[in-house]
Specification:
Elements: E1 2-3, H1 7-19, E2 27-28, H2 34-41, E3 46-49, H3 59-70, E4 76-80, H4 85-93, E5 99-103, H5 110-121, E6 125-127, H6 129-139, H7 150-161, H8 165-172, H9 176-189, H10 199-210
Parallel strand pairs: 1-2, 1-3, 3-4, 4-5, 5-6
């Protein structure tokens, strides 16, 4: 399901998704239409614009938060024209799995957009690198990050983007073993237990990095 008030962009996403083997079961152009459509169609994923009519403020974000409450397993990819750090952090704080936040210009980069959609539908996260950079640059000074090494900063930023260990290793031209070592260091320095290393714990680390009140992991 797609919720986007710009008709050209909305129809463009419909064409893009259908031409790549996906079915678009519903489209919305305003915030109040989102939840009724989600309840009726129960899609495999929802793509929501942050700012929707009638106020063009945070209707899409509020719909995403409500949807995660009513349909906790629904993967949601949020689109925004600008980096809105509060919205991104709030959305992440609602749950660890199946969440994405991209800037709208990524929709024009077909492979990146489809990759992000695929990632969230398989339970991962997909944060736009520019969103991550903006959030971290504005919050870093007030967070307990001073103990992290420059490499640990890089690894954690890529974790926030939703990259797996193998992809991080490829980006940094290091071994996966080295990536795992850096991640254990991040867990330690952010006060998270290092053992386990599952997806939930990774997102807890990201939430701690972004300055959210992440729930304690039972893993």
């Amino acid at each position: 399901m797609i919720a986007e008030d710009n008709a050209l962009l909305r129809e463009g996403m419909v064409l893009l998704l259908t031409s790549n083997g996906h079915d678009v079961v519903a489209t919305c152009a305003a915030g109040p239409e989102v939840m009724p459509a989600l309840r009726e169609h129960r899609p495999d994923a929802a793509v929501l614009d942050v700012r929707l009519p009638p106020t063009f403020r945070d209707e899409g974000l509020r719909a995403a938060v409500q949807a995660r409450s009513e349909l906790p397993d629904l993967p949601i990819l949020v689109l925004s024209q600008y980096v809105e750090q509060t919205y991104a952090a709030e959305l992440l704080a609602q749950g660890a799995r199946g969440i994405g936040y991209l800037l709208k210009d990524r929709v024009g980069r077909v492979e990146q957009f489809l990759e992000a959609l695929e990632r969230i539908t398989t339970g991962g996260t997909a944060l736009d690198p520019e969103v991550v950079t903006e959030i971290l640059s504005q919050k870093a000074a007030a967070r307990p990050l001073q103990a992290l090494t420059p490499r640990e900063h890089e690894v954690l930023e890529m974790m926030a983007q939703g990259l797996a260990n193998g992809a991080i290793a490829e980006r940094l031209v290091i071994t996966e073993r080295a990536v795992s070592k850096h991640i254990r260091g991040v867990f330690d320095k952010l006060g998270l237990p290092p053992e386990g290393g599952n997806v939930h714990r990774r997102v807890l680390a990201v939430l701690a990095y972004l300055g959210n009140n992440a729930p304690e992991s039972s893993a």
